[in-house]
Specification:
125 residues; alpha+beta; four-stranded antiparallel beta sheet; 4 helices; 34% helix
Length: 125
């Protein structure tokens, strides 16, 4: 995954269609908008296979777009998410919040199906 922070100049230079064209041209599998806690667009993620990550990052840099980060992330397999009832969801979210507060925690991954309002919306092409 390549993450690009949302900068005013970036979005003045690139429309959503142009971002999609760049993603296709450089060989990304997908891309999506990243929204902050106020649901404002804060960046764009380009998603690619791990083996293609560095070549895609290089191609993006060749377009004079500097990624904020290039990293491997966990993504659940389609259909492997689990649904929780309200009590289970509260317990799971409390546990995840607890883990996030630990200084030893680096990243937390799960396969909990989140309610639609908690999920980031993909870019429609």
């Amino acid at each position: 995954m390549l993450y690009f922070p949302c900068l005013a100049s970036m979005f003045c230079l690139f429309s959503f269609v142009q971002v999609e064209e760049v993603a296709i041209e450089i060989g990304c599998e997908d891309f999506r908008l990243v929204k902050d806690e106020n649901r404002k667009v804060s960046g764009v993620e380009f998603i690619t296979e791990v083996d293609d990550m560095h070549s895609v990052a290089r191609a993006v840099r060749e377009k004079n777009i500097q990624p904020k980060s290039v990293q491997v992330i966990y993504s659940t397999n389609p259909g492997s998410e689990v649904s929780l009832d309200e009590g289970q969801m509260d317990a799971a979210m409390n546990f995840i919040e607890y883990l996030e507060e630990l200084s030893e925690t680096v990243d937390i991954y799960h396969n909990i199906a989140l309610p639609a309002e908690d999920m980031e919306e993909p870019v429609e092409g």
